[in-house]
């Protein structure tokens, strides 16, 4: 009986020195027997507490955040941001306001080269890895359309070494001729792989941006075009880095370390350091604002042999249709994030329950009803001056026209009234995804760095959750109506014989029901 009672409520089994049970203990057993006996179950809902059972005492959280994000701006304009977090490891890195969108005056592909050449400092990469290994560390560099991020995860006691290494990697890269030649080979291999891989999502993302922002800012290629590989050399790289790698365009972010310690290391290694390319009296920075143009980018391609083997992927045609959303600095960013979560979607062979998004619109209205559709997924790309909400779908080349109409109808139906349950589900899913991702130290680092780089401050998770909770069905309807006024951006990959014209897709997105204009043929 004692063990059973302990499972029933671990706070109750209290025995005095003489082994006698206290009245509380006997009361708990009596309550258990009353509700567990075979005769006559009480008529009580499973969601209601049983009467006579002591109220449980739960652990409470002291405030929303144990540690706030602290920010210091050094004399040279560099921002230092930190978020303390319990543990013996930390993630520290430098984020630079530099990416493929800033390459209008340069050959496209510099950001791609910078990523591949990262951590090529005065010592070899092997020596860097050996140095980090002493502190259990790893390093990485990633570039996107608007940000370049150098990051290191290591033991807290190795912070001085980590910041010294980051300073060398960002401001003192060697860029030797043989390293640049090796990088050209790596870039060519990656471009070849991009066109051969079974998953076309990276290539489609590149195409939809080129269609939506034709020839400007975020529409510029993220991957180096094949024709530009031989145009990029040490002089071009130094010219670009001289203009964009300035302290006022950088943030040193850290998670899991004391703020004062990080500031001290920043002063030591990043305050009065001259970069290897020298300094420019006037930085020639491209301040262009993203101009949404809409349009179509098509790539005819034989997809029949993309994935051979015992279980080959069938030949598919991939379509991505997008409309302009908003910047992440605008208030409408949160309703768009909820709308994207509400659309959801995925592959037709995904397994799982509601937690995997099986109750999102693209599953319920598209994949569950049209067995021949292989994939339907919603994506939301947002930048400091614009954004793009798009749906990627894939199916057999003979059913492309029908697939496009299904997607245009889903866009039109977004402007209808969202059901209370589906809206609450989408908001809860978005909040849970946000909170679960922010349990990871590298994700917190990226969140701190990106927010401070773009806004100079950081919205804490509980603030974002409150904003998500306040989204209403009328907010969803309002942002969708505004989005549907923009021209569509279309990316198409594969066998495109049955692809409707751009004008027909635009007409469908301007209609009341999202249907494509009818086509009449004399001969089939």
TrEMBL record:
The protein's name in its UniProt record: Mitochondrial-processing peptidase subunit alpha
Keywords: Membrane, Mitochondrion, Mitochondrion inner membrane, Transit peptide
Cited PANTHER family: METALLOPROTEASE, MITOCHONDRIAL-PROCESSING PEPTIDASE SUBUNIT ALPHA
Annotated ranges, domain Peptidase M16 C-terminal: 232-430
Domain Peptidase M16 N-terminal: 79-226
Lineage: Eukaryota, Metazoa, Chordata, Craniata, Vertebrata
Pfam families from the UniProt entry: Peptidase_M16 (PF00675), Peptidase_M16_C (PF05193)
A GO-annotated cellular component: mitochondrial matrix
